[in-house]
Amino acid sequence: MEKFTTLTAIAAPLPLANVDTDKIIPARFLKTIRRSGLGVHLFDTLRYDEHGAERPDFVLNRAPYRRAQILIAHENFGCGSSREHAPWALLDFGIRAVIAPDFADIFYNNCFKNGILPIRLPREVCDALMEDVSPGDNARLTIDLARQVVVRPNGEEVAFEIDPFRKHLLQNGLDDIGQTMAHAGAIDAFEQNRAAAQPWLPKIALT
Amino acid sequence: MSGPRTLFDKIWDAHVVEQLPDGTCLLYIDRHLVHEVTSPQAFEGLRATGRRVRRPEATIAVADHNIPTSDRRRGIAEPESRLQVETLEQNVAAFGVPYFPVLDERQGIVHIIGPEQGISLPGMTIVCGDSHTSTHGALGALAFGIGTSEVEHVLATQTLLQKRAKNMRIEVAGRAPAGTSAKDIILAIIGEIGTAGGTGHVIEFTGEAIRALDMAGRMTVCNMAIEAGARAGLIAPDETTFDWIKGRPYAPQGADFTAAVSYWRSLAADPGATYDKTVRLDAAAIAPMVSWGTSPERVAPITGAVPDPAAEPDPAKRAEMQRMLTYMGLQPGQKLAEIPVDVVFIGSCTNGRIEDIRAAAAIARGRHVAAGVRALVVPGSGLVKKQAEAEGLDRVLVEAGFEWREPGCSMCLGMNPDQLTPGQRAASTSNRNFEGRQGPGGRTHLVSPAMAAAAAIAGRLADAREFM
Ligand code: SF4
Questions:
Q1: Phi, psi of B16 (to 5 degrees)
Q2: pLDDT for B442-461, tens place per residue?
Q3: How far are the Cα atoms of A31, A34, B139, B413 from residue B76, in angstroms, in the given order?
Q4: pTM
Q5: H/E/C letters for each residue in A44-75?
Q6: DSSP class of residue A74?
Q7: pLDDT, tens digit, for every residue of A12-54?
Q8: Residues of chain A contacting residue B156, judged by C-beta atoms under 8 Å apart
Q9: With contact defined as beta carbons under 8 Å apart, do B220 and B186 qualify?
Q10: Chain A residue with minimum CA distance to B154
């Protein structure tokens, strides 16, 4: 997983609430057995018409947002299914951070597993940031994870909250399976205690 | 934790392996359900790091999302779908994971077969790379959906790193009126609290109307807890639960079952346990519901009309409603019971159980699907299909003009050939009416099985009570 430290990049405004995972990546593109290659289908129905041609008014089809690495949206971003294809599609397109008033739980979790930083900021702040990045070529924001701030084009800093453990993993690009493996002894002990306390707990063995 | 605890608190506390300094918990997972769409990259990750599956005997795999629901002895025609199923088969063989093959009668939608086989039990932690894992909460298990990285994490460690969710209680007081079902109750709840109403919470459903539901109905309610934004849905296990579990193939048997029941009885919330949020609904006020928009919170009673965005004061919400009506091809003020439908889909992990098929067949019996309407019934598992056929329900439905299919997710998400075409309108017993969910440009109205069958007969959205 790629580390996340600081990012200065073009930010694309997507002023929609309840952007569900079917909008981010429709189910018909989930038939892959790989993680990469989904970027072309990101926001497929918003981005392309029924003949597959780009919709010129969709933000990611406009310069400079084609090169956006930050996305700003409204409430409940990523609601719907658990598909990790949603963050994979964002990442494959180049998005490293999403800013919104709030996120659906599973999507929020999935972002961290893929080196994407989801940032919760109040609706008014999201609207102000969208305003900041609407002029086009200057549409850049800086995100400094160590200091937990988003820097606006006028230099003003907006602070955000993030869980310290997740921050640590993201800053260092750490895989959390490796972290958990370090607790293997505790997991063994837990399993032994469970087996003793609840001997009736069945095992799945195929017949 | 000390003091009175909720059902969620008790299950959580019983599964904490370790608590990290910042409050994140290493949570032990009792059951892991695996399917073809969200697992290939997880197994690939295990291979790349040389890790094994820690507890294959706590894991069960099945293919459900993109398998065909017509005759499948000839295999899967669509090459990408075939590759996903073949990849799953190679992975379960290589890692020693129990698997119900596509032609096995126990095959079916992952959330139907877990409870059906007694694999999902009260008090357990259950995960699956699928958001509707909340279904299993109906048994009194803490069950939630995870992403593929977490699937890999559970395969490798049998644990997950989790932050404790908050407690929310939704009490549905009184009795639901005749002609309404569990689906109407949960749609009414989501209409009330919204699709983000449960975010960050585990919802425990309580109250007389919930207690009165059979297990199928309870699963329908918990299934859609995720549509209310919740991490999971829960219903405390009771006699209805224990009777239903008894004798299922993978449930404890004999003396083990008795021991298990006495533990399960201890799971109910302690008197005085507190919830971070409580919502109360009056069951008597619930009518058969139908969704009119492209979010499950956009629902109304079938006796109502399409709302007028002009009456919405919040400009962002007004614009959203306007966009929904355009997508759905509806006019403000249009009577819901006058909206014609092209397709009817009865199935999914929300409503693909035997009780759902009985409800649909009861409406279909002696009637016929309206001209021009395509109506599909897709049982949730091979065993549901077998049971329905033993009861003669397949014949009732086929004689009424419904298609009787093989089990799977089917048109719930349209990954297999069962899809809506652009502009087609469906009455569907599934759980999501997002744009394009059932096929690009398709328009979905979420309803109960009885309402779906009534729509098929009437050729329009219809009040199922008029057909009972
Ligand atoms: S039936 Fe639908 S909601 Fe349920 S698991 Fe399948 S695709 Fe998901």
A1: -80, 115
A2: 999 999 999 999 999 999 99
A3: 13, 20, 34, 17
A4: 0.93
A5: HHHHECCCCCECCCCHHHCCCHHHCCEEEECC
A6: -
A7: 999 999 999 999 999 889 989 998 999 999 999 999 998 999 9
A8: 177, 180-181
A9: yes
A10: A177
